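G., the chain you wanted modeled:
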Amino acid sequence: MLLQNAYYFFKNALTPEQCQSIIDLGNSKMAHEAVTLGNDEKGANPETKSIGDKTLSEIEDKSKYHIRNSEVSWITEQWVFDMVIPFIEEANKLAGWKFDIDQHESFQFTKYKEKGHFYGWHEDGGGDWSDIYKKEIPGVTPSRLNVPWQSHENMDKKYTRNINNVGRVRKISATIALNDGYTGGDLKFDLGPHKEKRYHICEEVRNQGTVCVFPSFVNHCVTPIETGERYSLVAWCLGRPFR
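Predicted structure as tokens:
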């Protein structure tokens, strides 16, 4: 799908005080949650190498690499949804996508706290029938994790414990910059082979409080942190598959 706008952003949409409130909330949850990592993360594969911002085509043996290294917790508080969702809905209109969305998942608070922390190239969702969420049946549905916990986001992306998400796919993603003052940790987009400059660093999202919204099928990564810590909030909005 060719897009007129691969992403849309609202600079400094959240105040520093709002950002700090989310950081405090995310950190408090991280301190109390036993976060279990998936098979693509360093914690599950301690001997593997960091893929960094290399593309998968550059890697001969993918089993020797992990594609992310960060810490996460999950946010479900209504006041955070009320703060962020209106920007996503506005971007959906102003960017010209006008995707049919009617649901959202828990927000992911992410901390890149050490040099080298990163998230390699990935899509959040394809938007078609192959990415549709199915209902999880405890003890029957396969999970990619060793120890399931309360958040359905920790399951295989094709299954969900939230009945409202069944039959839907990720269509729109958003990342909110909760702080600045770090180096590295760039949000980078793959705009596709038809673009003269295929790989684009999203400079705008380096500003604290900026909300960056993009279709979930757009490939993106977070380059390795060089100095400091990077805090972000990630949101996914869902709808029926594209027709």
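The chain has two helices and 18 strands.

Shout if anything looks off.
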